[in-house]
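Hi all, long-time lurker, first post. I run a small reading group and we've been trying to get comfortable going from sequence to structure in the token notation. Rather than ask abstract questions, I figured I'd post a concrete chain and ask someone more experienced to write out its structure so we can walk through it together at our next meeting. Sequence below, copied exactly:
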Amino acid sequence: MTPPLRFNAAERPRTGVIEEIAPGVRRLVAGNPGPYTFTGTNSYIVGEGRVAVIDPGPDDAAHLARLVEALTGETVSHILVTHTHLDHVPLARPLARRTGAEVIGFAGPAGHPGAGEGGIGAGPDAVLAPHPRLGHGDEITGPGWTLRALHTPGHAPDHLCFALEGTGILFSGDHVMGWSTSVVAPPSGEMGAYLASLDLLAGREDTLYLPGHGAPVRSPGEYVGALARHRMEREAGVRAALGAGPASAREIAGRVYAGLEPPLMRAARLTTLAHLIHLAENGEAEALGDVNIDTTFRAKE
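-- Answer (accepted) --
Happy to help. Here is the structure in token form:
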């Protein structure tokens, strides 16, 4: 069962249009629609006059031009990135050169490995190397706004959500999206970390998520719970498939995700591998060789 989406057709993001979607928050959607990006990557402008930009987006000259136009007459003090996947970060440096703003990301190691088998849009962050860097709980402030960083690994090890303090708004990046579940693709994606990060958000009282892709997520607490249950149902399916005999992520995904559209099967195999690794970490399975989507796993008694 896929968790129900929390938006209606009228809220479907429109590419290339600046929209105020919450008080003091504007959104511009990049022109990179696809099976893993929905209508495109959401870039956000926070504040008025002296502002922050969250996730400037993919390598897209037209999107950069629209961002710069939208920022006419304003000062960009900070460019924040939720994580260094290639649909979120490439415009960080070009926008910084245009505006003089600092580029800021997670405080951990600058680079991380791609996701393998095509990467699902992941890659090293050589285009970013942000400085300074943010740790969990750190704040960035401007006139009338404060953003608090929350380290939420799982989809990516360097993933941050940003809480707009005093508003109930959380910029949820790709950890919680407004149209689909997140891909958790090893080696950079980790299912255990993803579930722990969902638990972190479940303990908060945010009232609106503004995600990296898709429309605003309303009733976010309920939705986060649905996401966690969905992942546990998938893991139960993987566990059951493994109980029928040793198998690889590729083989199990073909059963657990039977009927899935071919363009999405790559992500399904990688997420299945993440579940198998999680089961192995919990002592329920073991890999018979170096870990990849074709490695045979077997259940442990």
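A couple of things your group might point at:
The CA atoms of residues 45 and 71 lie 9 Å apart.
The helical segments are 61-70, 92-99, 191-202, 220-243, 249-256, 262-281.
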